[in-house]
Amino acid sequence: MKTLPLGVEPVVAPRHTFDESRSLIGLTHQEVGEKLKEIGVPEKQCRMRAQQIWHWIYFRGAKSFDEMSNISKDMREKLKQHFDVGRPEIIENLISKDGTRKWLMKFPDGQEVETVFIPEEDRGTLCVSSQVGCTLTCKFCHTGTQRLVRNLTPTEIVMQLLVARDYLNEWPSPSEGRLVSTIVLMGMGEPLYNFENVKKAMHIVMDDNGINLSRRRITLSTSGVVPEIYRCGEEMGVNLAISLHAVDDKTRSEIMPINNKYPIDQLLTACKNYAGIKNSRKITFEYILLKDVNDSDEDALKLVKLIRDYQIPAKVNLIPFNPWPGSSYERPSKTRVAKFSDIIFSKGISAPIRTTRGEDILAACGQLKSESEKARKYSNKIN
Ligand code: SAH
Ligand code: SF4
User: Fold this and answer.
1) How many domains are there within the chain?
2) pLDDT on residue 16
3) Is residue 157 part of a domain?
4) Domain for residue 323, yes or no?
5) DSSP character for 84?
6) Does residue 241 lie within any of the structural domains?
7) What is the mean pLDDT of the chain?
8) Final residue before a domain boundary, out of 82, 102, 117
9) Are residues 242 and 115 in the same domain?
């Protein structure tokens, strides 16, 4: 008997004809007001109307103007003629046996993007994508094998959170006990190479009239685009995670070509400065463990030394390599990973091992996008 692949749920969302050029999602308050003015809403009403609409979109999660019951019917009709607050097509809605969820959404130009939700005991983390593909070519990363297709717009970045909340039934926006309590910009793409759009999207998500997510609950992960790290601190003020992955320039340049442009010294200097402006908030160093490449005791000790030399308040997140077809690295043994972590802990720096989540639905770090294309082809075949 033919069975559905594990975790495939029927798609429950209606297929809206989402049109980015008409969408009010991903615009600032002021921009929404200007749009209203353009369609003839009297100028002195625009601000108030913009606020009402904002509240419906980001606090109540409205997907259509019909839901906006405190706006007159005539006005709703007018809004419908010109604008859209709907969602894109959701082409996959997967649930892992460990509770991790993944949504694949398709935008009108045919580009697809993945968003992953990781529930934990005390919080729920949404892993958001910032680009389709990536211009960087880190050797261990599957996304890095795909050329950059394009940057995501602020609409598309914010939309990932709205869609997750639709599926998790998390409207109206609760003030506490939230399912989606944290956002990490760790999906596909390099967020600092799409700085303006990511910044705009994060300001919308942080706005206290809507979703109201604190900047302390947002973490941006970067492979180390040094000049933008300075801007990130000043203009967004979110938590910073650095994909360090190696402790000497030779190894880092080998696995992450961006290191040729911004070597370790420049990167750690930027981190030190970042921590300084943000009142010693800790920086997370992500460290992928690749067998026989960067996983020795010496590497662990050097990592501790670097953090100390640059006096960075830091924690380390160890990520055992997630393999993908054609990748040229291996995951180190469990004992090797544990020893690496112990060494760092023994020097007083927290270095937990990130447990792999959602592997059965290909939602783990570095597995996004192309693998799910394959999985879908496969599931089409067997259905
Ligand atoms: N471009 C950004 C954010 C996206 S990648 C960055 O590089 O930081 C999110 C994290 O997953 C990064 O730390 C990245 O190095 C890591 N990663 C990529 N491929 C991986 C793989 N195959 N196994 C484990 N982690 C991986
Ligand atoms: Fe791009 Fe990050 Fe993957 Fe490197 S690790 S290729 S920067 S997504």
Assistant:
1) 2
2) 52
3) yes
4) yes
5) B
6) yes
7) 89
8) 82
9) yes
Q: What confidence category does residue 1 fall into, taking pLDDT thresholds of 50, 70 and 90?
A: very low
Cα distance between residue 268 and residue 148, in whole Å: 27
List, for residues 67-93, the tens digit of each pLDDT value. Answer: 999 999 999 999 999 999 999 999 999
Q: What is the pLDDT of residues 160-189, one digit of tens each?
A: 999 999 999 999 988 888 999 999 999 999
Q: Note the pLDDT of residue 368.
A: 62
- Protein residues with CB under 6 Å of any ligand 1 atom: 140-141, 186, 190, 221-223, 243, 286, 288, 319, 321-322, 365-366
Of the two residues 173 and 301, the one the predictor is more confident about is 301
Which residues line ligand 2 at a C-beta cut-off of 6 Å? 134, 136, 138, 141, 143-144, 189-190, 223, 243
Residue 380 three-state SS: helix
- Average pLDDT score over residue span 277-299: 89
Active site residue 298: no
Ligand 1 centroid – CA 82 distance (Å): 40
Question: What are the tens digits of pLDDT across the range 281-291?
Answer: 799 999 999 99
Per the CB < 8 A criterion, the answer to whether 347 and 306 are in contact is no
The enclosing H or E element of 155 equals helix 154-168
Name the β-bridge partners of 222.
242
The residue from 58, 82, 106 where one domain ends is 82
* 210 and 289 belong to one structural domain: yes
36 CA from centroid of ligand 1 (Å): 41
Test site for ligand 2: of 223, 243, 258, most ligand atoms within 8 A of the Cβ: 223
Could you tell me which of 200, 57, 212, 186 has the C-alpha nearest to residue 117?
A: 186
Same domain, 131 and 200: yes
Cα 141 to averaged position of ligand 1 atoms, centre (Å) = 6
Catalytic annotation, pick one of 112, 114, 156, 286: 114
Alpha carbon of 241 to ligand 1 centroid (Å): 11
Domain that holds residue 343: 89-382
Within this chain, do residues 235 and 377 fall inside the same structural domain, yes or no? yes
pLDDT at 239 over 50: yes
Q: Where are the alpha helices (DSSP H) in 177-319?
A: 195-206, 226-235, 249-255, 258-261, 264-277, 297-309
User: Which percentage of the chain shows pLDDT scores above 70?
Assistant: 89
Ligand 2 pocket mutation, candidates 134, 220, 221, 256, criterion most atoms within 8 A of CB? 134
Q: Are strands 182-185 and 218-222 parallel, antiparallel or unpaired?
A: parallel
